[in-house]
């Protein structure tokens, strides 16, 4: 290299951003690192140790991602911008206004700063998104791939804000960007974060999860910058990829809880009642295409088992089970959270209709959930509400094609061969049309005019619609209170959504539960114009 490369990083005080910073400091290349930090003095000790380690290479830009001046200063002279900053659950659930402002508004500021920098062609943006954009999955369609429908679960302000942020990046027109949809991440704060909020009860027992570890996520970004600096990523940019740990990181929510509690000598069934957790309206998938990103960046080094073995050595509270009876842990660590404002049992206690409709399908459906583990169907044991199933066969990636969703066009064609007929087919499958009469074959990043199932016209790239799973920003990208969650209504008109929505929803639900009612104590979200 003829000069030092400068990498700008947001979210460095978080779990993933901290690992990215650590790995960039370990890189064989001596990068200049610029990090945006709102309050360095209040950061975690892990981050402070990194600052000491990289004191001659790290420049701190103190300020908020909502401050145009600070963001502009951050990307000054940057070659890469790694955008990890986000408000994530559980904080995202408790302050939706701030969640949208930071996740969507902050991303807009990053993109706009790049476009206004005078170096738009030189700066490369890596935007970290989330598996949550895919919404709810269960055993009917546990496998997912890029291009599957983007549809936020109701009340998931984090997902809704990240969907808007993703689209802003994808359709920004900047020449070098990549969107990485991060799966659920195992990190050092994992158990501590979950033991402080009702969020732990949002994990569906039978939801599919393909985890990645914090260390592998940091290595992924280190390799991305290293490989690109060496000219090894030709064809990588202006694309979206799913991040996942692969075969040995795929499990269900039930198995995830068991893995963590096994370190305490316990299990999910010892600490929980089955009806405490929601059965739907969360997120989680197994990826059929997470290997694609690994083939580019070679980041997979840890399995789920490796992570838990590491935690056993690092964190003292995983040894509590050896000295504290399970009943005491259950009572004081778990049952105390049942009345937390983010706990489903609290919504039941307060009879919050919107939440009951969204997470169970109504109060009557909640009452039908078995109270005994002997009666509750556990997918990891080969059980479903309809009877027995072969769980190992369900997880066999070689047979995942059985669960492949249609994207509504001829996917056998190379991207360069996609034409106006493919756009028309995709639009029809989404209940709408494409208004363009002509389309340059393969020009997936050139915007065209579409018309949605409700008659809204919108300008969007074929890439966003065909390859990234987006559709009408007016109907299908909730940003409450102006745009509430209304996928019940959309699924009734759009086969693209219907093929997944009715796995866990009744076709009759739209008559009594849409749009999902706002809770009277939910914060009001800022509108798009105010960001």
Secondary structure tally: strands: 18
Class by SSE composition: alpha/beta
Low-confidence stretches: none
Please give the alpha-carbon distance between the first and last residues.
39 Å
How much of the sequence lies in strands comes to 5-15%
**Rg result:** 23 Å
Mean pLDDT: 92
Shape: globular
- What's the main sheet like? 7 strands, parallel
Give the neighbour order of strands across the main sheet.
3-2-1-4-5-7-11
Tell me which oligomeric state these chains represent. single chain
What is the helical fraction, as a range of percent?
A: 25-40%
**Separate helix tally:** 22
In short:
The chain is 35% helix and 12% strand.
Can you offer a commentary on this structure?
With 531 residues, the chain is of the alpha/beta class. The model has no long low-confidence stretch (mean pLDDT 92). β1, α1 and β2 form a beta-alpha-beta unit. The chain has 22 helices and 18 strands. α1 runs parallel beside α2 and α20 crosses α21. The strands form six sheets. It has a seven-stranded parallel β-sheet, sandwiched between helices. The chain has a three-stranded antiparallel β-sheet with strand order 16-17-18.
Name its key features.
seven-stranded parallel sheet, 531 residues, alpha/beta, 12% strand, 18 strands, single chain, 35% helix, three-stranded antiparallel sheet
């Amino acid at each position: 290299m003829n000069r030092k490369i400068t990498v700008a990083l947001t979210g460095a005080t978080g779990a993933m951003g901290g690992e990215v910073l650590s790995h960039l400091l370990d890189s064989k290349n001596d990068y200049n690192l610029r990090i945006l930090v709102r309050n360095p003095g209040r950061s975690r000790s892990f981050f402070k140790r990194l600052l000491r380690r990289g004191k001659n290479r790290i420049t701190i830009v103190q300020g908020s991602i909502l401050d145009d001046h600070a963001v502009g200063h951050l990307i000054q002279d940057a070659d890469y911008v790694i955008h990890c900053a986000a408000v994530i659950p559980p904080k995202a659930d408790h302050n939706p206004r701030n969640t949208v402002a930071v996740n969507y508004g902050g991303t807009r500021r990053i993109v706009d700063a790049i476009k206004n920098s005078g170096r738009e062609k030189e700066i490369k943006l890596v935007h970290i998104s989330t598996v949550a954009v895919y919404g709810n999955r269960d055993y009917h369609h546990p496998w997912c791939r890029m291009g599957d429908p983007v549809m936020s679960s109701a009340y998931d302000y984090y997902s809704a804000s990240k969907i808007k942020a993703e689209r802003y990046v994808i359709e920004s027109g900047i020449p070098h960007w990549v969107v990485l949809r991060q799966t659920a991440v195992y990190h050092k704060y994992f158990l501590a974060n979950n033991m402080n909020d009702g969020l732990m009860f949002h994990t569906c027992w039978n939801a599919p999860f393909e985890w990645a570890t914090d260390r592998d996520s940091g290595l992924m970004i280190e390799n991305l910058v290293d490989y690109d600096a060496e000219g090894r990523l030709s064809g990588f940019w202006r694309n979206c990829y799913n991040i996942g740990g692969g075969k040995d990181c795929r499990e269900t929510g039930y198995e995830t809880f068991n893995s963590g509690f096994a370190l305490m000598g316990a299990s999910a069934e010892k600490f929980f009642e089955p009806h405490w957790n929601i059965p739907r309206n969360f997120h989680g998938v197994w990826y059929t295409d997470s290997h694609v990103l690994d083939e580019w960046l070679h980041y997979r080094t840890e399995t789920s088992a490796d992570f838990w073995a590491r935690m056993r050595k690092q964190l003292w509270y995983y040894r509590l089970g050896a000295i504290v009876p399970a009943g005491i842990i259950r009572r004081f660590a778990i049952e105390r959270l049942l009345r937390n404002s983010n706990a489903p049992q609290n919504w039941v206690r307060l009879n919050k209709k919107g939440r009951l409709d969204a997470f169970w399908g109504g109060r009557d459906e909640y009452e039908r959930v078995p109270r005994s583990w002997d009666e509750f169907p556990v997918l990891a044991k080969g059980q479903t509400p309809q009877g027995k199933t072969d769980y190992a066969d369900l997880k066999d990636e070689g047979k995942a094609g059985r669960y492949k969703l249609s994207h509504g066009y001829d996917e056998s064609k190379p991207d360069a061969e996609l034409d106006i007929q493919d756009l028309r087919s995709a639009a029809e499958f989404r209940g709408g049309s494409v208004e363009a009469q002509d389309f340059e074959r393969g020009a997936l990043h050139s915007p065209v005019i579409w018309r949605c199932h409700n008659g809204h016209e919108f300008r969007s790239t074929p890439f966003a619609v065909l390859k990234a799973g987006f559709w009408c920003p007016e109907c299908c990208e909730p940003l409450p209170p102006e745009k509430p969650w209304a996928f019940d209504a959309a699924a009734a008109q759009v086969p693209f959504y219907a093929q997944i929505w009715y796995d866990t929803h009744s076709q009759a639900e739209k008559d009594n539960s849409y749009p999902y009612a706002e809770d009277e104590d939910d914060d009001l979200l800022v509108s798009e114009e105010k960001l």
